[in-house]
Protein backbone atom coordinates (compact mmCIF):
# COMPACT_ATOMS: atom_id res chain seq x y z
CA UNK A 1 0.00 0.00 0.00
CA UNK A 2 1.60 3.27 -1.07
CA UNK A 3 2.00 6.33 1.09
CA UNK A 4 -0.54 9.08 0.88
CA UNK A 5 -0.01 12.79 1.18
CA UNK A 6 1.65 13.99 4.37
CA UNK A 7 0.24 16.69 6.59
CA UNK A 8 2.61 18.88 8.55
CA UNK A 9 1.28 20.87 11.49
CA UNK A 10 3.28 23.38 13.54
CA UNK A 11 2.87 22.85 17.29
CA UNK A 12 4.78 25.04 19.77
CA UNK A 13 7.17 26.07 17.01
CA UNK A 14 8.09 22.48 16.13
CA UNK A 15 7.28 20.77 12.85
CA UNK A 16 5.51 17.55 13.78
CA UNK A 17 5.10 15.99 10.37
CA UNK A 18 4.85 12.29 9.72
CA UNK A 19 7.83 11.55 7.52
CA UNK A 20 7.85 8.43 5.44
CA UNK A 21 7.00 4.78 5.85
CA UNK A 22 9.22 1.75 5.53
CA UNK A 23 6.43 -0.82 5.82
CA UNK A 24 3.28 -1.83 4.02
CA UNK A 25 -0.18 -2.66 5.20
CA UNK A 26 -2.11 -5.76 4.40
CA UNK A 27 -4.43 -5.32 1.45
CA UNK A 28 -7.87 -3.99 2.16
CA UNK A 29 -9.39 -7.16 0.68
CA UNK A 30 -7.84 -9.17 3.53
CA UNK A 31 -10.24 -7.70 6.06
CA UNK A 32 -12.86 -10.24 7.09
CA UNK A 33 -16.43 -9.04 6.55
CA UNK A 34 -17.86 -7.49 9.68
CA UNK A 35 -21.27 -5.94 9.91
CA UNK A 36 -21.32 -2.20 10.42
CA UNK A 37 -24.97 -2.18 11.42
CA UNK A 38 -24.87 -0.05 14.52
CA UNK A 39 -25.15 -1.94 17.79
CA UNK A 40 -25.32 1.48 19.36
CA UNK A 41 -24.75 2.05 23.07
CA UNK A 42 -25.19 5.78 23.08
CA UNK A 43 -24.83 7.86 26.19
CA UNK A 44 -24.33 4.88 28.51
CA UNK A 45 -24.35 6.27 32.07
CA UNK A 46 -21.31 6.04 34.30
CA UNK A 47 -21.67 3.03 36.60
CA UNK A 48 -18.87 2.18 39.05
CA UNK A 49 -20.53 -1.16 39.84
CA UNK A 50 -19.81 -2.62 36.41
CA UNK A 51 -16.08 -1.82 36.36
CA UNK A 52 -13.55 -4.35 37.65
CA UNK A 53 -10.15 -2.77 38.20
CA UNK A 54 -6.60 -3.83 38.98
CA UNK A 55 -7.19 -2.98 42.62
CA UNK A 56 -10.24 -5.24 42.70
CA UNK A 57 -8.10 -8.09 41.40
CA UNK A 58 -5.43 -7.42 44.04
CA UNK A 59 -8.07 -7.43 46.75
CA UNK A 60 -9.17 -10.80 45.43
CA UNK A 61 -5.60 -12.09 45.82
CA UNK A 62 -5.54 -10.85 49.40
CA UNK A 63 -8.80 -12.65 50.12
CA UNK A 64 -7.01 -15.88 49.22
CA UNK A 65 -3.70 -14.94 50.87
CA UNK A 66 -4.20 -12.95 54.10
CA UNK A 67 -1.38 -10.47 54.62
CA UNK A 68 -0.90 -9.74 50.91
CA UNK A 69 0.39 -6.18 50.56
CA UNK A 70 0.47 -5.80 46.79
CA UNK A 71 2.95 -6.52 44.01
CA UNK A 72 5.07 -4.83 41.36
CA UNK A 73 7.83 -5.59 38.86
CA UNK A 74 11.39 -4.57 39.78
CA UNK A 75 14.19 -3.36 37.49
CA UNK A 76 15.28 -6.98 36.89
CA UNK A 77 11.84 -7.93 35.60
CA UNK A 78 10.95 -9.98 38.69
CA UNK A 79 7.52 -9.92 40.28
CA UNK A 80 7.94 -8.59 43.81
CA UNK A 81 5.20 -9.71 46.21
CA UNK A 82 4.80 -7.88 49.52
CA UNK A 83 3.51 -9.71 52.60
CA UNK A 84 2.62 -8.71 56.17
CA UNK A 85 3.47 -10.96 59.13
CA UNK A 86 3.97 -14.08 57.07
CA UNK A 87 7.16 -16.07 56.69
CA UNK A 88 8.25 -15.93 53.01
CA UNK A 89 8.85 -19.70 52.89
CA UNK A 90 5.23 -20.44 53.76
CA UNK A 91 3.72 -17.54 51.82
CA UNK A 92 5.48 -17.73 48.46
CA UNK A 93 3.66 -20.79 47.12
CA UNK A 94 0.24 -19.61 48.32
CA UNK A 95 0.83 -16.15 46.86
CA UNK A 96 1.92 -17.54 43.49
CA UNK A 97 -1.13 -19.79 43.32
CA UNK A 98 -3.49 -16.92 44.13
CA UNK A 99 -1.84 -14.53 41.67
CA UNK A 100 -1.96 -17.02 38.81
CA UNK A 101 -5.55 -17.88 39.67
CA UNK A 102 -6.62 -14.23 39.47
CA UNK A 103 -4.31 -12.90 36.73
CA UNK A 104 -3.23 -16.00 34.79
CA UNK A 105 0.09 -17.82 34.86
CA UNK A 106 1.71 -15.26 32.56
CA UNK A 107 1.66 -12.74 35.42
CA UNK A 108 4.66 -14.49 37.01
CA UNK A 109 7.56 -13.78 34.62
CA UNK A 110 10.41 -16.07 33.65
CA UNK A 111 12.65 -13.93 35.85
CA UNK A 112 10.74 -15.28 38.84
CA UNK A 113 9.00 -13.98 41.93
CA UNK A 114 10.54 -12.61 45.13
CA UNK A 115 9.01 -11.73 48.50
CA UNK A 116 9.38 -8.45 50.42
CA UNK A 117 7.97 -7.46 53.83
CA UNK A 118 5.08 -5.03 54.10
CA UNK A 119 3.70 -2.90 56.92
CA UNK A 120 0.11 -2.81 55.69
CA UNK A 121 -2.05 -5.11 53.61
CA UNK A 122 -3.33 -4.01 50.24
CA UNK A 123 -6.87 -3.79 51.62
CA UNK A 124 -5.73 -1.46 54.41
CA UNK A 125 -3.98 0.80 51.93
CA UNK A 126 -6.94 0.77 49.55
CA UNK A 127 -9.29 1.73 52.36
CA UNK A 128 -7.01 4.64 53.28
CA UNK A 129 -6.85 5.80 49.67
CA UNK A 130 -10.62 5.70 49.32
CA UNK A 131 -11.06 7.57 52.58
CA UNK A 132 -8.82 10.49 51.67
CA UNK A 133 -9.50 10.78 47.94
CA UNK A 134 -12.77 12.80 48.01
CA UNK A 135 -11.20 15.47 50.27
CA UNK A 136 -7.69 15.47 48.86
CA UNK A 137 -8.40 15.30 45.14
CA UNK A 138 -10.90 18.13 45.32
CA UNK A 139 -8.07 20.50 46.31
CA UNK A 140 -6.26 22.66 43.76
CA UNK A 141 -2.85 21.38 42.73
CA UNK A 142 -3.50 17.71 43.50
CA UNK A 143 -2.92 15.27 40.65
CA UNK A 144 -3.54 11.76 41.96
CA UNK A 145 -3.95 9.34 44.82
CA UNK A 146 -2.67 5.79 44.48
CA UNK A 147 -1.85 2.67 46.43
CA UNK A 148 1.91 2.61 45.81
CA UNK A 149 2.88 -1.03 46.09
CA UNK A 150 6.61 -0.28 45.89
CA UNK A 151 6.57 1.82 49.05
CA UNK A 152 3.62 0.05 50.69
CA UNK A 153 2.02 3.44 51.26
CA UNK A 154 -0.66 5.64 49.74
CA UNK A 155 0.86 8.20 47.40
CA UNK A 156 -0.61 11.67 46.97
CA UNK A 157 0.73 13.30 43.83
CA UNK A 158 0.83 17.07 43.67
CA UNK A 159 1.71 19.48 40.87
CA UNK A 160 4.21 21.47 42.92
CA UNK A 161 5.46 21.92 46.49
CA UNK A 162 3.04 24.76 47.23
CA UNK A 163 0.20 22.23 47.53
CA UNK A 164 1.91 20.22 50.27
CA UNK A 165 0.78 22.19 53.38
CA UNK A 166 -2.88 21.90 52.42
CA UNK A 167 -2.57 18.15 51.92
CA UNK A 168 -0.84 17.67 55.26
CA UNK A 169 -3.65 19.58 56.98
CA UNK A 170 -6.24 17.41 55.19
CA UNK A 171 -4.53 14.22 56.39
CA UNK A 172 -4.45 15.52 59.97
CA UNK A 173 -8.09 16.57 59.77
CA UNK A 174 -9.12 13.10 58.60
CA UNK A 175 -7.31 11.51 61.54
CA UNK A 176 -5.44 8.92 59.48
CA UNK A 177 -1.92 7.64 60.13
CA UNK A 178 0.59 10.09 58.66
CA UNK A 179 3.22 7.40 58.09
CA UNK A 180 0.89 5.64 55.67
CA UNK A 181 1.21 8.45 53.11
CA UNK A 182 3.83 9.90 50.79
CA UNK A 183 3.29 13.32 49.23
CA UNK A 184 5.26 13.48 45.99
CA UNK A 185 5.63 16.07 43.24
CA UNK A 186 4.56 14.56 39.93
CA UNK A 187 3.72 17.64 37.88
CA UNK A 188 0.33 18.21 36.23
CA UNK A 189 -1.19 15.75 33.77
CA UNK A 190 -2.59 17.85 30.94
CA UNK A 191 -4.80 16.51 28.16
CA UNK A 192 -2.80 16.02 24.97
CA UNK A 193 -4.43 18.46 22.50
CA UNK A 194 -5.34 17.74 19.44
CA UNK A 195 0.46 13.39 10.02
CA UNK A 196 -0.02 10.88 6.43
CA UNK A 197 -3.10 9.14 5.26
CA UNK A 198 -3.34 5.35 5.35
CA UNK A 199 -5.77 2.72 4.22
CA UNK A 200 -6.64 0.46 5.95
CA UNK A 201 -6.56 2.53 9.11
CA UNK A 202 -4.67 1.25 12.17
CA UNK A 203 -3.72 2.25 15.69
CA UNK A 204 -1.21 5.03 16.28
CA UNK A 205 -2.01 7.22 13.26
CA UNK A 206 -3.44 10.72 13.06
CA UNK A 207 -7.13 11.44 12.97
CA UNK A 208 -8.85 14.81 12.75
CA UNK A 209 -12.10 15.70 14.43
CA UNK A 210 -13.68 19.15 14.16
CA UNK A 211 -11.06 21.58 15.47
CA UNK A 212 -8.72 18.90 16.85
CA UNK A 213 -5.89 16.57 15.89
CA UNK A 214 -5.72 13.32 17.84
CA UNK A 215 -4.43 9.76 17.49
CA UNK A 216 -6.41 6.67 16.55
CA UNK A 217 -6.09 4.30 19.48
CA UNK A 218 -6.95 0.82 18.27
CA UNK A 219 -9.43 -1.10 16.16
CA UNK A 220 -12.35 -2.53 18.11
CA UNK A 221 -15.63 -4.40 17.86
CA UNK A 222 -18.82 -3.36 19.61
CA UNK A 223 -21.10 -6.30 19.09
CA UNK A 224 -21.19 -6.67 15.30
CA UNK A 225 -20.00 -3.12 14.65
CA UNK A 226 -16.42 -2.57 13.54
CA UNK A 227 -14.75 0.66 14.56
CA UNK A 228 -12.01 2.24 16.59
CA UNK A 229 -11.39 3.90 19.94
CA UNK A 230 -9.90 7.28 20.76
CA UNK A 231 -10.34 9.83 23.55
CA UNK A 232 -13.66 11.28 24.59
CA UNK A 233 -12.04 14.70 24.74
CA UNK A 234 -11.29 14.39 21.00
CA UNK A 235 -15.04 14.52 20.31
CA UNK A 236 -17.06 17.69 19.95
CA UNK A 237 -18.38 17.35 23.50
CA UNK A 238 -16.49 15.35 26.12
CA UNK A 239 -18.97 12.81 27.47
CA UNK A 240 -22.23 12.12 25.63
CA UNK A 241 -22.77 11.28 21.97
CA UNK A 242 -23.16 13.97 19.32
CA UNK A 243 -21.97 11.76 16.42
CA UNK A 244 -18.64 13.52 15.98
CA UNK A 245 -17.06 12.71 12.60
CA UNK A 246 -13.43 11.59 12.43
CA UNK A 247 -11.19 11.90 9.38
CA UNK A 248 -7.93 10.13 8.53
CA UNK A 249 -5.64 11.86 8.24
CA UNK A 250 -7.60 15.05 7.60
CA UNK A 251 -10.93 16.31 6.34
CA UNK A 252 -12.65 15.33 4.05
CA UNK A 253 -11.39 11.71 4.22
CA UNK A 254 -14.04 10.31 6.54
CA UNK A 255 -12.95 7.38 8.74
CA UNK A 256 -15.69 7.00 11.33
CA UNK A 257 -18.49 8.43 13.45
CA UNK A 258 -18.74 8.57 17.23
CA UNK A 259 -21.51 6.30 18.54
CA UNK A 260 -20.52 5.59 22.19
CA UNK A 261 -19.23 8.07 24.75
CA UNK A 262 -20.66 7.66 28.28
CA UNK A 263 -21.55 10.73 30.28
CA UNK A 264 -19.36 11.79 33.19
CA UNK A 265 -20.92 11.66 36.65
CA UNK A 266 -20.59 13.49 39.96
CA UNK A 267 -21.31 12.57 43.55
CA UNK A 268 -20.53 9.40 45.45
CA UNK A 269 -16.82 8.67 45.36
CA UNK A 270 -16.24 11.38 42.77
CA UNK A 271 -14.35 14.33 44.39
CA UNK A 272 -16.38 17.44 45.15
CA UNK A 273 -16.62 19.86 42.25
CA UNK A 274 -15.43 17.30 39.69
CA UNK A 275 -16.99 14.84 37.24
CA UNK A 276 -15.74 11.27 36.92
CA UNK A 277 -15.34 8.25 34.70
CA UNK A 278 -12.99 5.26 34.49
CA UNK A 279 -11.64 6.22 31.05
CA UNK A 280 -11.34 9.12 28.64
CA UNK A 281 -12.62 7.03 25.72
CA UNK A 282 -15.14 7.03 22.88
CA UNK A 283 -16.02 4.46 20.21
CA UNK A 284 -16.39 5.36 16.51
CA UNK A 285 -18.08 3.11 13.97
CA UNK A 286 -15.84 2.97 10.93
CA UNK A 287 -16.65 4.00 7.38
CA UNK A 288 -13.50 2.45 5.91
CA UNK A 289 -11.40 -0.68 6.26
CA UNK A 290 -9.50 -1.38 9.46
CA UNK A 291 -6.50 -3.59 10.21
CA UNK A 292 -5.56 -4.92 13.68
CA UNK A 293 -2.13 -3.29 13.66
CA UNK A 294 -0.29 -0.53 15.51
CA UNK A 295 2.18 1.80 13.79
CA UNK A 296 5.66 1.97 15.30
CA UNK A 297 8.25 4.70 14.75
CA UNK A 298 12.03 4.51 15.35
CA UNK A 299 11.72 6.54 18.53
CA UNK A 300 10.63 9.77 20.13
CA UNK A 301 9.79 12.54 17.65
CA UNK A 302 10.99 10.43 14.74
CA UNK A 303 7.68 10.04 12.94
CA UNK A 304 8.65 7.79 10.05
CA UNK A 305 6.87 4.45 10.39
CA UNK A 306 9.50 1.76 10.89
CA UNK A 307 7.13 -1.21 11.24
CA UNK A 308 3.55 -2.30 11.77
CA UNK A 309 3.06 -4.21 15.00
CA UNK A 310 0.67 -7.13 15.16
CA UNK A 311 -1.95 -7.10 17.91
CA UNK A 312 -2.19 -10.73 19.13
CA UNK A 313 -4.01 -9.98 22.37
CA UNK A 314 -4.40 -7.74 25.36
CA UNK A 315 -3.49 -7.08 28.98
CA UNK A 316 -6.49 -5.58 30.75
CA UNK A 317 -4.62 -4.20 33.77
CA UNK A 318 -0.81 -3.87 33.72
CA UNK A 319 1.10 -3.54 37.00
CA UNK A 320 3.39 -1.03 38.63
CA UNK A 321 6.96 -1.39 37.36
CA UNK A 322 6.06 -2.69 33.90
CA UNK A 323 7.35 -0.87 30.81
CA UNK A 324 4.67 0.25 28.39
CA UNK A 325 4.93 1.89 24.97
CA UNK A 326 2.64 4.21 23.08
CA UNK A 327 2.55 5.52 19.50
CA UNK A 328 1.17 9.01 18.92
CA UNK A 329 0.88 11.37 15.96
CA UNK A 330 3.13 14.00 17.58
CA UNK A 331 5.83 12.28 19.62
CA UNK A 332 5.89 8.90 17.84
CA UNK A 333 6.75 5.73 19.72
CA UNK A 334 7.91 6.34 23.26
CA UNK A 335 7.86 4.37 26.48
CA UNK A 336 7.65 4.72 30.23
CA UNK A 337 7.70 2.65 33.37
CA UNK A 338 4.40 2.48 35.24
CA UNK A 339 4.95 4.58 38.34
CA UNK A 340 1.34 4.91 39.45
CA UNK A 341 -1.02 1.97 38.86
CA UNK A 342 -4.79 2.17 39.34
CA UNK A 343 -4.56 5.70 40.74
CA UNK A 344 -7.42 8.19 40.96
CA UNK A 345 -6.20 10.97 38.66
CA UNK A 346 -7.31 14.54 38.08
CA UNK A 347 -6.99 16.00 34.59
CA UNK A 348 -5.23 19.34 34.83
CA UNK A 349 -7.19 20.71 31.88
CA UNK A 350 -10.63 20.70 33.46
CA UNK A 351 -12.85 19.18 36.10
CA UNK A 352 -12.45 15.59 34.92
CA UNK A 353 -11.25 12.83 37.27
CA UNK A 354 -10.49 9.22 36.37
CA UNK A 355 -10.72 6.18 38.63
CA UNK A 356 -8.05 3.47 38.34
CA UNK A 357 -5.86 5.20 35.75
CA UNK A 358 -2.12 4.86 35.19
CA UNK A 359 0.91 7.13 34.79
CA UNK A 360 4.11 5.94 33.06
CA UNK A 361 7.29 7.97 33.62
CA UNK A 362 10.52 8.33 31.63
CA UNK A 363 13.78 10.32 31.79
CA UNK A 364 12.96 11.69 28.32
CA UNK A 365 9.84 13.34 26.94
CA UNK A 366 7.34 10.60 26.15
CA UNK A 367 4.18 12.49 25.20
CA UNK A 368 2.99 15.71 23.58
CA UNK A 369 -0.03 17.56 22.27
CA UNK A 370 -1.88 15.57 19.61
CA UNK A 371 -0.98 12.20 21.16
CA UNK A 372 -4.46 12.02 22.71
CA UNK A 373 -5.95 8.61 22.04
CA UNK A 374 -2.62 6.86 21.48
CA UNK A 375 -2.65 3.08 21.93
CA UNK A 376 -0.68 1.98 24.98
CA UNK A 377 0.82 -1.48 24.70
CA UNK A 378 3.39 -3.92 26.04
CA UNK A 379 5.97 -4.44 23.30
CA UNK A 380 7.17 -8.00 22.63
CA UNK A 381 9.14 -8.49 19.43
CA UNK A 382 6.85 -7.39 16.61
CA UNK A 383 3.77 -7.68 18.79
CA UNK A 384 1.82 -5.01 20.63
CA UNK A 385 -0.21 -6.41 23.51
CA UNK A 386 -2.83 -3.71 23.97
CA UNK A 387 -3.13 -2.47 27.54
CA UNK A 388 -4.55 1.05 27.51
CA UNK A 389 -5.50 4.36 25.93
CA UNK A 390 -3.38 7.48 26.52
CA UNK A 391 -5.18 10.70 27.36
CA UNK A 392 -2.63 13.10 28.85
CA UNK A 393 1.02 13.97 29.23
CA UNK A 394 3.23 16.12 31.39
CA UNK A 395 6.72 16.81 32.67
CA UNK A 396 8.73 17.03 35.85
CA UNK A 397 9.24 14.11 35.47
CA UNK A 398 8.19 13.28 31.90
CA UNK A 399 5.11 11.11 31.92
CA UNK A 400 1.98 10.09 30.09
CA UNK A 401 -1.36 9.11 31.60
CA UNK A 402 -3.59 6.34 30.29
CA UNK A 403 -6.75 4.42 31.08
CA UNK A 404 -6.26 0.65 31.34
CA UNK A 405 -7.84 -1.43 28.60
CA UNK A 406 -10.12 -3.15 31.13
CA UNK A 407 -11.82 0.14 31.95
CA UNK A 408 -12.14 1.13 28.28
CA UNK A 409 -13.76 -2.23 27.50
CA UNK A 410 -16.19 -1.95 30.39
CA UNK A 411 -17.31 1.59 29.66
CA UNK A 412 -17.68 1.24 25.89
CA UNK A 413 -18.83 -2.37 25.65
CA UNK A 414 -16.09 -3.19 23.13
CA UNK A 415 -13.29 -5.67 22.61
CA UNK A 416 -10.09 -4.99 20.63
CA UNK A 417 -9.99 -6.16 17.00
CA UNK A 418 -6.96 -8.44 17.03
CA UNK A 419 -4.71 -10.58 14.87
CA UNK A 420 -6.81 -12.95 12.76
CA UNK A 421 -9.51 -10.27 12.35
CA UNK A 422 -11.38 -11.34 15.46
CA UNK A 423 -12.33 -9.74 18.74
CA UNK A 424 -10.05 -10.65 21.64
TrEMBL record:
Gene3D superfamilies: Trypsin-like serine proteases (2.40.10.10)
InterPro entries noted in UniProt: Peptidase_S1_PA, Peptidase_S1_PA_chymotrypsin
PROSITE patterns named among the record's database cross-references: PROKAR_LIPOPROTEIN
SUPFAM superfamilies: Trypsin-like serine proteases
Superkingdom field: Bacteria
Name used for this protein in its record: Uncharacterized protein
